[in-house]
Amino acid sequence: MFMRSKIYTTIAVFAFAACAALSISAQKTDPVSGEWNVVFSIQGQTAEGTFNLKLEGDKVTGTIDTAHTGPGTLSKGKWADGKLSFTLDFAKHESIDVTGAPKDGKLSGEFATEGLTGTWVATKK
Description:
Layout: H1 2-29, E1 34-42, E2 45-56, E3 59-66, E4 70-80, E5 83-90, E6 96-103, E7 106-113, E8 116-124
Antiparallel strand pairs: 1-2, 1-8, 2-3, 3-4, 4-5, 5-6, 6-7, 7-8
């Protein structure tokens, strides 16, 4: 009886370790998915908001919400060679074209809207 219990405990420990390793591996291979605090900077002005991003293969989907633009959605989202690109579409604001990449646990890059370009940085919540 004791031997069977020890075997089951050993199997449970290995199963837990395997699941933990897979979870860590998934986090390392998906630096995009999740909820992010984002700050857009352009011409000395900033606008803060929240990204909710999801990476599936090479496709990026999600939502954005800022006080300046209101809620919006991502379209044309791509992940290739460690780089992001997508368009943010809004009901009451011109679309914003975004490019960027993960760096030091954050996402950052450039954006273009209304004939202007700026930078952005997102920190995972």
